Amino acid sequence: MTHRDRPDARREGESAVALGPAGVASGLRVGLSLLLGVAVLVALMVFGDLHAMARQLRGFPWGWLPAILGLTLLNYSLRFLKWHLYLRWVGAALPWPASAAVFIAGLAMVLTPGKLGETVKSFLVWRLRGTPISATLPVVLAERLTDGLAMVVLAGLGISVYPAGVPVLGGILFGLSLLVLVAWIWPQAEPFLHRLAEWPILSRILPALLRFYESAHRLVRPLPLLFAIGLGLISWGAEGLAFALILHGLGVPMDRSLVQRAVFTLAFATLAGAVSFLPGGLVAAEASLAGLLLVQGLPREIAATATVLIRLATLWFGVALGALAWAWLVPGLWRTGSARVRPAGLNLPDPAMRTDDETAYRGGRDDPAGG
C-alpha cells in the first residue's frame, strides 16, 4: 500500500483540497501584502528624499547587478538543497525538477503573515507524490528553524555594531532552541502521544500527529541539524555579501568591516521581520535595515536607497521567481481529480513504486499511525 492509497493520507489530502476558499483568501492577503510593500517603498522614498535617492541610483554601478542577484540565487540554491534533502530524509523524495518547482513556488508565499503560506509546499508535495501533509509540514518548519539559527549566528558575529540587540538575539536563540528540544525528545514523547488515543477526539488526529513528530525528530538530529545550519551560514552570508556590494556601490568604502556590518545588519533585520509575523517582514525589516544603517553613521539617502535595493534584490526577486513557478506548476496541480493528478512536464515517479527513502521512513509498516 502506498502513501497515496492509505485512508489517512487521502483524508488529509481531501481536507486540503476542501480549503479552496481559504486559498482564495490567501490570494487576497498576498494582494494586500503587495500593496503594503508598495506603501513601504513609497515611505522609504519620502524618508530618504526622492531627489537625493535618485542621485544615488544614477551613480550606482548597475553592472554589479548580476553579481548581486547571483549571490541571492546562491542563497536560494543552497536553501533548495536543504529542502530537497529534507524531503528525502522524511521519505518524501521528489525528482529534482518537481522539488525545485515546489521550492521556488514557496518563495512567493513569504508574503503571508509569519511566512505561514509556505506550508502550501506540503500540500503541493501531497498532490505530486501522495505523502501525507503531516509528514512534510516539519520540513517547512525545519527550514525556518535552521535559517533562524544560522542568522542568529551571523548577527552574533557582528553584534558589536549594535550591542543593544543582544537581548533580542538572546530571546530569539532561546525560542529556537526550545523548538529544537521539543522535537528532539520524540522518543520520550511518543508513549505519551499514544496515550492520547484513549480520548475519542484526539485519537482521530493521532496518526497525523505521530507522523508530524517523527519527521520533526528526524530533522533535528545532531548531524542533519548542524549540516542545515552550516548551509544557512553560507546561504545567508551570501546575501549579506550582496548587501555589502550594494553599500559599496553607494559609496561606502569596501573593507572587512563593511562586510561584517552588512552581514550583521541584514541578518538582524531579517530576524526582526520574521518575529514581527508581518507579511514578508514588511515594515519591520525595512525599518530595521534603515535604522541600523543610520546607527552606523550613514546618511539618510544612502540608508534608504540601500534598503530599497536589497529588498528588491532579495524579497521581491524571490517573489517574482515564485510567481513564475506558480504559473508553470499550479495549472497541472489544480486539474479536476484527486491527488493522482500529475502536472504535465514533470517527470514524476510511478505512484505504485516505493522508493528506498519511503521504505526507510515507514519502517516497512502500512498502519495509519506508522507514518
From TrEMBL:
InterPro entries named in the record: L-PG_synthase/AglD (IPR022791)
UniProt-annotated stretches for the region Disordered: 346-371
Composition skew (Basic and acidic residues), residue ranges: 353-371
GO CC, one annotated term: plasma membrane
Coiled coil as UniProt keyword: no
Pfam families linked: LPG_synthase_TM
Top-rank lineage group of the source organism: Bacteria
Topology class, membrane: Multi-pass membrane protein
Alphabetized UniProt keyword annotations: Cell membrane, Membrane, Transmembrane, Transmembrane helix
Protein name: Integral membrane protein
Organism field: Candidatus Thermoflexus japonica
